[in-house]
Amino acid sequence: MVVALSSPAGPWPAFVTSAPGKVILFGEHAVVYGKTAVAGSLDMRAYALCTPRTDGLARLLLPDISVDATLPFASLPCRASVEQLAHPGDVAGLLAPHVLADYEGGPGRTAILTFAYLCASLVDEAAWAEGFSLCVRSLVPVGSGLGSSAAFHVALATALLRISGRLTAVDALGRKLVDAWAFRGEQVAHGTPSGIDNAVATHGGFLRYTKGAAPQPLGNSAAGGSSSAAGLRMLVCDTHVPKSTMALVAGVRELRDQHTEAIDAVMQAIDSISTRAADLLAAGKPGCAEAERHLAGAVRLNHGLLCALGVGHPALDLVCRVAGQRCMPAKLTGAGGGGCALVLVPAEADEQAVAEVTGELVAAGFACYPTVVGGPGVAMDDFVDGVPVARWVEAAPSELPGGADGQSDLIERFAALPDAALAQLAPRTGT
Ligand code: PMV
C-alpha cells in the first residue's frame, strides 16, 4: 500500500499517517519501582493528512486545539543549534517570539514547539522547497491518560520523516526511527516521559515494559505482525474525576516510606501479575478462553492491589462494581485517583449486559469508549481501500458548511471530516 516518494523535493501524493492511543493493562505504579508493566494499543487513533504545496511554506492545522500556523523555512532554528540542545524541550529558547505569539500558555504552544523541533531536526531546505500542509485530527480522548500526546507525536514524526525522505516504509527499521523521533516529541511536551506511550503508539499490540529497558513488543497481537490473533475487547471508562499523576506517585512513595515491607510485597505481587499476563499475551492467544479467565482474575487482583497503594477512588470502584455485577472484571488504569478504568469484555459476553454496563456508567456521568486493545501501531498509506488518499478525502462526507462540494482545499476537508469518516482511515487489522 505504501509508495515511496519519488524524491523529497519532487511531486508526491497526499498521504495519511496514523497511530493509536494506549492503555496500561497491568503494573502502573509498580513500574516506578522497577517492576513489570504491560500496556496495549487502543483502536482510537490520531490521523495526519499530509499534502504538497507549491509556495515553500509549511502549514500545521490542528482543529482539535485551534492551531493553524503557516511557517516559512526561515522561521525554524537551524539543525545544528537544535542538535546542541541539552534537552529537546529547550527548543522554545531558539524560536522567534512571533512564532509562538498566538499560542501562549495553551496546548497549541506545545504542538508548535514539537512541530518546530521535529521540522528543524528532520526536514532540510530542499525537502521544504515546495512546502507541505499537515492536518492532525485525533479520536484519542485528550488528558485522560490514554496516550493522546504520543499518538499525535507518532503520527507527526512519521509524516515529517517521510517528507524528509528518511522513511519510505513502516517496517521494523522504520518503526525504530519513528519511535525514537516521537520520543523526542514527547520530551518536548512532557520533559521526562518514560517512553512507553510512544512505544505502544509505534509498535501497537501489547508491550512489556520495565524502567530503563527498551519496551518489549509481545509478538502476539492484531498489530499486523506475525499473528492474526484477535485483540482484547474492552470498555475504557473515563470517570472525569481529575487526578494528578505526580501527586499520586508521591503518595505511594510516602506510603512506602512508612510501610516499606508491606508496600514492597504489594509491588512484588503486582509484578507477578504483570509478568504472568505478559507471558500469556506473548503466547499469542489473548482472546482464548483460558487466557481470558486468567486475565480476568489478574485484572481484579491488580485493582485491589492498586487500592491497597491508596490510588483508588469511589468512582473507579463504581466502575468495578457495575461491570463486576455482569461478570466483567475491571480495574483502574494509569495513575488512578480518578481518571480511567478499563473493563474487560469476555468473548462470550452477552451484548445486552455490555449495553447495560455502558448505560449505567454513562448515567453516572462517565464517558465509555468501546475498544479493542492490541491492534495496529503506526501506519502510513497513500491509498484507502485502493483509492488514492486525496480522492478518498474529497469523496468522504464532510462537515464543511455547504456540504461535500469537492471544491475546498483537501486539508480543510480533512479537518471537517466527521469522526466516523476519520475512523475509516484506520489500518485494517492484520494487513
Ligand atoms: O497517568 P498515566 O496514565 O500516564 O499513567 C501513569 C503511570 C504511573 O505508573 C502511575 C506513573 C509512571 O510514570 O509510570
UniProtKB/TrEMBL annotation:
Localization terms from the record: Cytoplasm
Q: Which PROSITE patterns match?
A: GHMP_KINASES_ATP (PS00627)
The chain positions of domain GHMP kinase C-terminal read 299-357
Is-annotated flag, keyword GTP-binding?
no
Any matching Pfam family: GHMP_kinases_C
Keywords attached to this entry: ATP-binding, Cytoplasm, Kinase, Lipid biosynthesis, Lipid metabolism, Magnesium, Nucleotide-binding, Steroid biosynthesis, Steroid metabolism, Sterol biosynthesis, Sterol metabolism, Transferase
Q: Does the keyword ATP-binding apply?
A: yes
Which InterPro entries does this entry report, sorted A to Z? GHMP_kinase_C_dom, GHMP_kinase_C_sf, GHMP_kinase_N_dom, GHMP_knse_ATP-bd_CS, Mev_gal_kin, Ribosomal_Su5_D2-typ_SF, Ribsml_uS5_D2-typ_fold_subgr
Q: What is its main location?
A: cytoplasm
Could you tell me the EC number(s) of this protein? 2.7.1.36
| One annotated GO biological process | isopentenyl diphosphate biosynthetic process, mevalonate pathway
* Pathway stated in the Swiss-Prot or TrEMBL entry: Isoprenoid biosynthesis; isopentenyl diphosphate biosynthesis via mevalonate pathway; isopentenyl diphosphate from (R)-mevalonate: step 1/3
What's the catalysed reaction?
A: (R)-mevalonate + ATP = (R)-5-phosphomevalonate + ADP + H(+)
* Location of the GHMP kinase N-terminal domain: 119-205
Give the CC-aspect GO terms: cytosol
Gene Ontology MF terms:
ATP binding; mevalonate kinase activity
Family statement drawn from the similarity comment of this UniProt entry: Belongs to the GHMP kinase family. Mevalonate kinase subfamily.
Q: What does this protein do?
A: Mevalonate kinase; part of the second module of ergosterol biosynthesis pathway that includes the middle steps of the pathway. The second module is carried out in the vacuole and involves the formation of farnesyl diphosphate, which is also an important intermediate in the biosynthesis of ubiquinone, dolichol, heme and prenylated proteins.
Kindly provide the name given to this protein in its UniProt entry.
Mevalonate kinase
Q: Source species, please?
A: Coemansia erecta
Q: Which gene encodes it?
A: ERG12
